[in-house]
Design a protein that fits this description.
The chain is mainly beta and about 110 residues long. The protein is built from one helix and seven strands.
Length: about 110
């Protein structure tokens, strides 16, 4: 029997004003949720993955902000008019997040409801 599709860990999220915040992200069914830290219980946001737009790697070598150029560890999630820009620890981690999130977006959750 296959394990449920799940991923969790710290990512850096770009704020609307261009600052970076370290946040604890985890999947919960078809939702991507995030908190201020792993120990926190107050949910900051929950994205319903089947309702988001593209979840994709950010173009490597492209300028992210005034000082940062993408080293391959950045990815984006489109939700309505907002684009979430996230940074993993490295390129392989970013690819893993994009793969799992796209699987959940397409309804790939293995857990029974």
């Amino acid at each position: 029997m296959a394990d449920a599709v799940h991923i969790s860990g710290y990512l850096h999220k770009m704020t609307r004003d261009g600052r970076w915040q370290k946040r604890w992200f985890e999947t919960n069914g078809n939702f991507l949720t995030y908190y201020k830290s792993k120990k926190m219980t107050k949910l900051l946001a929950a994205l319903n993955l089947p309702q988001v737009g593209d979840i994709a790697m950010f173009d490597e070598g492209k300028q992210i902000d005034a000082v940062e150029v993408n080293d391959g560890s950045f990815f984006t999630i489109e939700l309505n008019e907002r684009v979430y820009t996230l940074k993993a620890d490295n390129k392989n981690e970013a690819r893993k997040w994009v793969s799992v999130l796209n699987t959940l977006k397409e309804g790939g959750q293995n857990e029974a409801p």
